[in-house]
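Standup, Tuesday
Yesterday: got the pipeline producing structure tokens again.
Today: sanity-check two examples.
Blockers: none.

Example 1:
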Amino acid sequence: MKIWRFGQGFTYNKTTVQSRLFLLVLLTTLAHWFLMILGMTAKLENKHRQYQAHS
């Protein structure tokens, strides 16, 4: 979980309900895993070069 400027913001979460906090952490973890697998797949298929910055 990151600050609001760079991704899934946890800074402004003010929940006191443990089940809601658990769900927030679970969703953030699942999103992170999905994006990591997506990135690894793109790298294995050499599609990451299409998104490389050339500046």
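Example 2:
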Amino acid sequence: MLQEEHRKLLEEAFKMSTINRTKSDELIAKAAEIERQIDELKD
């Protein structure tokens, strides 16, 4: 499910934010894309 994948990406991004900021930013970008897909499905 997209919501679950979105939540997991945000959790991982938070963990990575103190270790590898670049990787964290990549995960946040992926989560944002999934959020966009979720919003499209709602419409």
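Quick observation on example 2: Residues 11 and 27 are 9 Å apart (CA to CA). Residues 2-42 form one domain.
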